[in-house]
Amino acid sequence: MRVAMLAPISWRVPPRHYGPWERVVSLLTEGLAERGVDVTLFATADSVTQARLDAVCPRPLEEDPSLDPKVWEALHIANAFGKADRFDVIHNHYDFLPLTYAGLVGTPMVTTIHGFSSDRIKPVYWRYADRSAYVSISNADRDPELPYVATVYHGVDLSEFTPREHPGRGLVYLGRIHPDKGVADAITLAEAVDLPLVIAGIVHDRDYFAREVAPRVDGDHVRYVGSLGPAERDELLGSALALVHLVEFAEPFGLSMIEAMACGTPVIARRRGSVPEVVDEGITGFIVDDISGAVQAVDRIGSLDRRAVRARVAERFSRDRMVEDYVRVYERVLSGAHVA
Question: Looking at the whole model, is its pTM more than 0.70?
Fold first, then answer.
């Protein structure tokens, strides 16, 4: 099987720090290559892979402001589709724009929908539903007007996360600094239970950061440490009492939740979107509806077995399970199926 893996070019594959879509693409690409699948990764030229790398964009768009995103996006996507006849399947992780190329090639296409940034992009998905097989990353993130071939949950490479049986004292928030992600509520929770909080992630909304987060960061009780690489992320997540994920929107998946769980660290998350699919209530964490529920969850978090948290991630969210699920998707699509 010959697979063209079309990655985003906002960040390197794998990302140096932030870049959840690129991280998933890397895990899948490397897992497929290890299985002997012939994979060509279309990504930035500085990407690192054991598969074949095909690149026209020299550096990640988010790291080099001299690169015009529209120009390099067009060149990147055209490069992959110009070679479509070399592959058995094209796996699109680049959102909606590559769908507009799907009718121009005969190669079957799989599109993983990593969440909808807005309802305004959905007409493209509706228009090309017969030209690409759609994969959702959670059942909660499905659009009722779209057909899907499968739901494939993200996976993590368990070897990148160190299981720790003994929790630290503090709470952790890991993700974008944005109103949707509930960072201010994480601070409110930490204040309510009198526990330290470490905030890690890129600032996605600078006004929100300046207004709701920065004034409450004191370097002691609440610390902001920026965006972390793999080793620092492992240390931070593993040393926490719990990951706080009090999102204010319908979470498409929540990669940080399974990364924390892979360290044995349980999750306290608001009941939005995929959260009930990812968090096993009373096993890998607690699902709450408000700050009051989160306060109660902190009181109970010590009752959870961190070994069981890690074991559940190994069972449900390993990289190998994700790879196997996608191999089945490719096989279904190559047999002519676009809908499960």
Answer: yes
